[in-house]
Every structure is written in structure tokens, then in C-alpha cells.
Design a protein that fits this description.
Elements (H helix, E strand, L loop, with lengths): L19 E6 L5 E4 L1 H7 L3 H4 L14 H11 L5 E8 L5 E11 L2 E7 L6 H18 L3 H14 L5 H19 L6 H30 L2 H12 L4 H57 L9 H57 L6 H43 L1
Antiparallel strand pairs: 1-2, 1-5, 3-4, 4-5
Amino acid sequence: MTGAGDPLDPGEVPFEFQELFFSRTDPAGIILFGNSVFQRISHYPWHELLNKPHKIVRHPDTPRAVFWLLWDTLKQGRPIGAFVKNRAKDGRPYWVFAIVTPIEGGYLSVRLRPSGPLFDVVRGYYPELAARERREGLKPQDSAAILAGTLAELGFADYPSFMAEALAGELAARDRHLERDPDPALKLFADLLEKAKALLGHAQEIAVAYARNEHVPFNFRVLAAQLGQEGAAIAVISNNYAVLSHEMQAILDQFTESARSVFNAINRGLFLICTARIQRELLSCFKSEPEQEGMPRDTEIVLLTRQQEEYSALAYESLKAIAQSARGFGHACLEMSRLATGLEVMRVMGKVECARHDTQRDRMDELLRDLEGFQRTVSGALKAIEQVNRSIQRDSETLLARAA
């Protein structure tokens, strides 16, 4: 991806950072309602917007992959956020960050003006991907796979982690433009995300170290066989080590998945917290707008209020889920620590026994060094993991206390 200049290029439809606009559609994406900001920015009169497909404002620079992801997620009953380049009736473009959520009888799309750190990256990349879609005749899902690969190169595990960080960045940027104090919840979540990434990194470190050393028990058995009767004790130690190593292999996937569960819970919580906040602000803005002729607002206010309350509740539940995931990962750490301690005991016993033999000494020393390096890696990673995980639990409890 490449960057691109000023947040609002000449020729774009202007709108202010404090402005929020929304539209409500039926399940097929047909526009049923929108606020005055949406109508003004799109430059369409209401009779050309209502009962029309929302793609009436679609700009060809927005890749089809984005809309494929959007609809695929919404059809699963989940919300989604995305940068979108739209086009007004007069042909001028305008960029938004859209948060689209399922709502009674269809979908709600809330949009804000983007200027966060990921916006420049995205708006330089979208036209490239859209052009590639046309040039190569890509199916939307194939283009979505290319987008996922690009996000991975940028360090994002998946699209949900990207959209959560992007939305948080947009709200922080919006606060700066509006000269508001930084949102303390966003700061806490930023710290949580860094800690979650550290958890994943340390879990992967253990997995890599295991893969690098899983041959050691077998090599010890070979060594014991070469020593014959004198290697009987080493053979027993090697077998015991192999049993513990096999147990560790069996829980490694579960251990890594537990770390990812914490990471995913934090990303989901961040997105829901941000969504609930922007919906509160939208509701306040909409209530202050004058009523548009032929566009009664009472039903929309009821729907928006219900939606805001629902996502506030979901955000609160997500905070509890973060704390729960962190506690679950704590249990996984205890199990991994138990196995690591057992492996360390086997290593020490092996070291004592090997010291009794003069033959094959160089080979014994090499294997023992491998084991020692493995134990040191596992021990260090587990110690770091336990500290980070405790910190995540404390931060999630702080967020829960603030939200209560």
C-alpha cells in the first residue's frame, strides 16, 4: 500500500469532522431513511435516494472486495467497519469510515469523516486493488483474499483486527480535530492490543522452540541404545521426557488458540466500544437536526435509541469477555508451566546421568545444550506471558468499572 497526501483533496465533497450521517436500508440494501447530512453530501434530492439501492453512491475506486466483506459479515449478523470512497451525484468523491450494523428490518450505516493514521494508507491502495479487479476480472472473494494478504503484510491478523484499530484511530483523530480530551478508554484499549500482540508473539515463540527441539527425545533414545546396558537409565529418562514432550505438543495448539482468543476478544471489545460511542454521538446529532419535510423522525429516533442501547450492552459484555478470556488463558499458562517444570526436571536428571559416562560425551553435551536452550526459551516466554496476562486482566477490570 502507498500513502496519499492531504486528508481532504481538492475536488472532494467537503464535510466537517463534527458531522455524522447515517442511512437505513432494508435487507437488500434499499435506502429507507437518512439524515440531512447524508442527503446534502450525496447531492441527491430525497426522491432520488429513497427506495434506491445504496450503491447509487458507490465510487468505482472502492474495491468490490470491501463490499463482499461487508455483506458477508452482515449476513452472519455481525457488524463491520470499512473505509469507503463514495461518489456524489455531481461526480465528486467523498471518503467515509462507515460502521454498518444489523438493525430491525435491515441495516444501519453510520459514517464519519476519516483522517486517522490508516486512512492515507487505504486511500492510496483502494484504487490500485479496484483497478486490478477490473484488469484481471477478479471475483470479489478472490480480491478479498488479496486484501487479507496486504493486511497481513501490514501486521494485521485479519480484517476484524484491522477494522477495530482503524475505527479507534478515526475516533482518536476526530477527538483531536474537535479539540476534545483523549478518550481514556481508547488509550486503555491501545495498551491492551499491544499486550495481546505480545501474548501471541510469546506463544508463537514457544511453538517455534518446540518444533526446533522435538527431535531431542528421539536422539536421546538413539544415544541410549548406542550405550547399551550402560545407557538404560538414560533410556528411561528419555522415555519420560518424550511423554512430557508429547503432552506439550498436544496442548500447544490449544495454548496458542487461547492466546488468540484473548486477542480476538480485545479487538471485538474495541470495535464495539467505539461503535457504541459513535452511535451515542449520532443520536445526539440527529435529535438536534431540524425535521426534514416528508421525513418523519420519531420512528428513526426509536430505532437509533434501541440500537445505541443494544451496542452499549454488547460493549459492556465484551469487556467481561476480555476478562474471561484472560482468565482462561491464565489456566492454559498453568498447564504449560506444569509441563515445562516436568521437562526441566527430566533435563536435570539427564544431565546428572550423562555426567557418569565418558563415551559419547560430545553428543551428550550437544543434546543437553539443546534442551537447556529450549527450557530457557519456554521459561522466559511463560514468565513474560503471565505478567502480560495479569496486566490484561487488571486493565479489563478497570474498563469494566468505568463502564458500570
